[in-house]
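hey so i finally got around to running both of the ones u sent me last week. sorry it took forever, my laptop kept dying halfway thru and i had to restart like 3 times lol. anyway pasting them below in the order u listed, first the sequence line then the structure token line for each. didnt double check formatting much so if smth looks off just lmk and ill redo it

first one:
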Amino acid sequence: MKRKILIIGLGGIGEAHLKSIINYRNYQIEVCEKDLKKINILKSKYNTNNIKYITRLPKNKKYYLCIISTNPKERFGIAKAIIKCNNLRYILFEKFVFSKIHNYEKMANYLKKKKVDAYVNTWADFIITSLRLKLKYEKIDMNIFVQNGRMLTNLIHFTSLFSLLKNDFNLKIIKLKNMKFFRSKNISYHEMSGKIFIESSDGSKLNIKSKLLKKNIFEIVCKSKSYNFKISLTQNLKINKFNYITKTKKSINFPLVSKVTLKNIKNFNKTLFLKYDIVKKNSILILNILKKSSKKYIFVR
């Protein structure tokens, strides 16, 4: 029997999820999108009988997985309605999950009550697994330099990477410096520049700084007693690791959604998408950073 998958939202990320799973015969796909123009474009692009298009949120249906790829501003209400009115096994959120702190605990309660397992699409565990990073038993100093205009949208990835490496999901804000906010390329959301200093319970340090980078989107430099390496993401989406101790290099492709979703939803016991409860704490950390840094409401995507 085919597993039913519901994708809500047909923006760039929603379509990328669709691309990854559309040719897998064991899935029956429903796409929920209120914009009829987007639906017609997809119908002409993907000539298949495996997709059912709907314009309203479904009720009283059973799904193996619901992927919510709408924007954060409306995601909580949509997720609440879907969980309340349907039978779900799994739900996959896009980052940044919700825009308001109180929504995270509310959603955790809804998920628990309805026995839904929730995950978030971040690339932190992909990098750790693919590059075989093991640092949780060592005190580390991690410095991240990120291209101007890409800092805020990637904060959840950076903090998740650090938390997973340290196995610590109760990070502390130590200091914020030169924090400035401005509209991102998507004018509905904000971006930021500045310096953020975070610490784990064992005194490991995470410093994130915006910077003008010529070749890379971000650069991660990590040092400990046993390790000294640099990870960079190039403009053509190659992740490169250089070990300063062994002088060895490793390169992998960035985990694009269109390439990795299928593999990671087949068996959630082996997925590299992060559990909601893990991402929840760092999302709240980031929202607290924004509250401390700006009197205006800042929208993250």
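and the second one:
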Amino acid sequence: MLGCSLASGLGVRDQSVGRIAAKTLEADAVLFKAKAKARIDHAFAHLPKVEAFRPDLVILSSGNVEAFVHPHRIFERALERFAPKGWHGDIGLDPRPYFSADPEKARTQKRESAAKVFLKNVLIRPFGGYTHMSAADYESHLSRLLDELTEKGTAVVLVGPSPVSRYYFPYSRRNLRRLEEVQRAAVVGRPRVRFVSTFDVVDRRTELQADRAHPTVAGHEALAAAVVDLLSVEVGVEVGTSADVGA
């Protein structure tokens, strides 16, 4: 499995789309190379290991990290100087996907998460922000990655970005849709590549975690079912062969 926090199963541990799909397919071996904040261009560093593993299938999750809008770096520098450490960096104002089981700790976490999101809106809505990658650069990296993965006969299922909350991630929804369009276009003309839309598969009302971005276990189960359906109906990867999940 290649990709970002969706592929790595942030907040759901071993119940991620890749692990569920691999179990359903009874994969003989699985390679996971996914982590939070991983951009599409970071996947190239893993290609030697992927090639050595010789997977029948790669599940690639991508789009969120590149599309999310962050407050301008001048505000990030101010937060690094005056705010607590947990507020620093490009994801310092992102909401928490889940909270502590301890009620008192959870209340504190929820208050802090709400304050971060409020400040993010205060900084982004009037002044705009920045993203980690333009649509044009994303298209270039994605095309190259898909070509390198499929040139040796590997099938790829590309899982698109999440249907995030417009309040929790201001101005990001349009960018996410734009990169989803790039992904849909990239599938055309590549017979070994198929696309699963997280926007279409995951119910954003009931199948997203507290940050309104990362799927719950139910959301990952829905994505895994969509992946498996594609394999049996379109891609033609034989059930019971090895699967590669991650970034």
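quick thing i noticed on the 2nd:
The chain is about 45% helix and 10% strand.
anyway thats it, ttyl
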